[in-house]
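Every protein is a chain of amino acids, and every chain bends into a shape of its own. Below is the pair of lines this work produces for a single protein:
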Amino acid sequence: MEWREKAEKELGESHEISQNAIKQFRHLLRINRENVPFGWRDDAFLLRFLRAKKFDVDKAYRMTLKYFRMKQQSPQIFRVFPPSDVRHILEMQMQYMIPLRDPCGRQVFIFRVDKCDPYRCSVENVFRTNVLSLESVVKSSETQIAGIVVLLDMAGVSLSHSRFLSPQFARYTVEVVQDAFPLRFKAFHILHEPFYFDAILAVLKPFLREKIRKRIFLHGSDLASLYRFIPQEILPAEYGGLQPPFDNTMWRQQILNDEVYYKNLENYQIQEDNSTSKIEVCSHMYEQAVEDFDDETEDSEFEDATYFLDDPPSSSEKLTL
């Protein structure tokens, strides 16, 4: 009941609305049946896109086009099967979807730069494991409703990591967050950012919409600042939290054990023998719609981003671009 009420309040979801939206969605798919993967007939799969776009069927449809188009055009970073191919990246303990949710019901994804050895892993494989992490969590209806929070710990960042910050991969990251992946990205918290972080932001700035800019918070080494957003009770011990030390062993094993799911997921790809002109038309339709694609910025979306704040964040905490 609690989750149904949350879905109704934040997404405008009800049984009647969701069923009608799925019917409309399927109608769009039938119209474009030559250029859509068979997996789109799955109600649960369609629902994740509808929730990400608050049951705006046209926006959800455009997101699915972008989602599969990216998998088709850049498989080296967006295809997630088989997950065993990136086992060695997961074992580096740089990524972790912590098991406890915050008081808003959101899941928290932690990425630790100091565990990312640029000489042992490629940029493509790190990106793939991040996409794989998102694919693993978007299966949860609760996470589709409440969304996700990202905690990027930049301790240990060095010039050797610069290839991870190229304009190309910066744009890929922004496209996943803003346009292509069916999750509600509620906040981005940056810890231990280096003095040259402004240069990194300069790479991202051209691609970021105002909606996302307002969800980025810088904390430096101030853990007390972080706790105003993510409570100590759910954080690993490395961050002064009350949970055991960071260990993604069980989480990554769940991913590795679920190969059949990821194989089926990748079978939803757009078929290569489809008309190129149709794909180009879909691409053109997307580009024409990009201005109003996801420009709704409702107050409620920002209220829960600062759920734990007694006072507004200071200028040093909140990113201004």
User: Anything to note?
Assistant: DSSP finds 16 helices and five strands in the chain. The CA atoms of residues 28 and 215 lie 32 Å apart. Strands lie at 95-97, 107-112, 148-153, 185-191, 216-220. The mean pLDDT is 81.
